[in-house]
Amino acid sequence: MPTVYSGRAARLDDDAHIDEHRGAANTGLSRRALLRGTAVTGLGALLVVSGRAVICPSQAWGLETASLKPETMATLIQMARDIYPHDRIADRFYAIAVKDHDKKAAENESHRDLIEGGIGDLDARAGTGGYRGLGWEEERVAVLSQIEGTAFFQTVRGGLVVSLYNQKEIWPLFGYEGESYSKGGYIHRGFDDIDWL
Questions:
Q1: What is the pTM of this model?
Q2: What pLDDT shows up at residue 186?
Q3: Which ranges in 57-136 belong to alpha helices (H)?
């Protein structure tokens, strides 16, 4: 049976939440198993680890791992969302942002050790159930604040600055139109439009 991990925030406490998040029904989990091991993101995403892959059935995407454990990738996705939280950005963009760690780990054993060791430390600090088992964002952020000075945290955070925000598909969510040089520059394209003043 696949292992189910949560995305962000709310705990499932009653039948209303189950009815609201029917996407989990496709995983073949009982209500008891769902309540025991999951929380559902604000976007309704539910991450399932199966074999060497992290799958999100409700949003129809998956991520196959080559070097890192799929559980590690699921935790990296959650960690990325907690470091740079954007409710309007789907988990698949966070998955794309952390995928490079799997590629680097396949080429560099020290990078693999850094990531796997960092996730192990993160899970140990979070206690029973590990980092993903913490259902509330505030709890996860408190654990992240304990490791923010480590090489592991700085490597993940620093990589996200480029790997998350360089994805052209999410630029419209921030109102960024991309570079302007190829379109004649900003001077004639509204650089001085101040409609909010």
A1: 0.69
A2: 74
A3: 70-83, 91-107, 109-126
